Structures are given as structure tokens and as C-alpha cells.
Amino acid sequence: MFFVGDNLVFNYQEGVHNVLKVNGTGFKQCAAPAGTVPLTSGNDVINLSTPGRKWYICGAPNHCAVGGQKLAITVMPSSFAPGASPVSVISVTAPSPSPTAGCS
């Protein structure tokens, strides 16, 4: 479960993947609105500061639509968090790209 105050960390190979925050439609269509700025560090930390649904996709060609590199979460209010535990860090690591066969 995710709670307000948690940090979501995306770990991936810089230059191969990126992270785009999208809405539900963008998530379903694997498409970000024009002007969406990608996160590209390879170690992106997103503080989950508000409750509700959140959607993220990889914007590299075909990584979302074909490779399934997308994430949908629901962030619960901090009042739902069990006890007074420290802030959680949830890490998402992208798989290494598979080798592609050359054409003859």
C-alpha cells in the first residue's frame, strides 16, 4: 500500500528508459500529453504528497505498449497508515532491455 508521504523511486538505466507521469487515459493509451517533461536520471524519486490514483509510463518507444513498462498506484491518506512508522520508500526497477536480433 502507498500512503501520503511515501517516496516512489524509479531505478533504471539512464538513457534507455524514462518516467512520465500521465493520467488514466494516457496510461491506457501509453501516451503522454504534449509538453510532458520526462524524468531521466535513472534514479527518480517522487514524493507522494497527495492521495488518489497515480499513473506512470516509460516513454521510450514501445516500452509501455509492447513491454508493459507502466505503473498505476493508489495513494491513501496518511491517516490510513498503520502506526507512526517512518516514511516508506518504494522502489521500481526497470528490466534490462532484451537483445535484439540483427536483420540479415
UniProtKB/TrEMBL annotation:
Gene3D superfamilies: Cupredoxins - blue copper proteins
Domain of life: Eukaryota
CDD domains: Phytocyanin
Gene Ontology annotations of biological process type: response to symbiotic fungus
Keyword Cytoplasm recorded: no
Subcellular location field: Membrane
Gene Ontology cellular-component annotations: plasma membrane
Membrane-topology annotation of the record: Single-pass type I membrane protein
Keyword Plastid attributed: no
Domain Phytocyanin: 1-77
Molecular function terms, GO-annotated: electron transfer activity; metal ion binding
Keywords linked to the UniProt accession: Copper, Disulfide bond, Electron transport, Glycoprotein, Membrane, Metal-binding, Signal, Transmembrane, Transmembrane helix, Transport
Coiled-coil boundaries: none
Pfam families (UniProt xref): Cu_bind_like (PF02298)
Record protein name field: Phytocyanin domain-containing protein
